Structure prediction request, 106 residues.
Amino acid sequence: SKTANFRTGDGTATNTNENTEALPGVTVSPNPIQEKVLRFEVHMPMDADCMIDLTDMTGKKFMQTSSNLHMGTNQVLLDVPSAASGMYILRLQTIRGSVFSKIIIP
Prediction:
């Protein structure tokens, strides 16, 4: 399968699906996050149930949640008060594939 890159505000979100128009676009801002709140926008090509998870660089899943996102731009806020400083991978998964973005928690 092909890999496509979506440019985000402060990094690159990568997906592993050939039909890139069917996947959401993710913009994390600010990155590094501030005040232990992860803020990001998700532009959805259609209404979809999504699984959102945050994994540390050792592969340990820090948090997981699900959300029903609507076609168009969605604002998502996730509190991560117990997150240790470091780099994390944000994954947004739909039935069409997954999009990944690197997140820095200071």
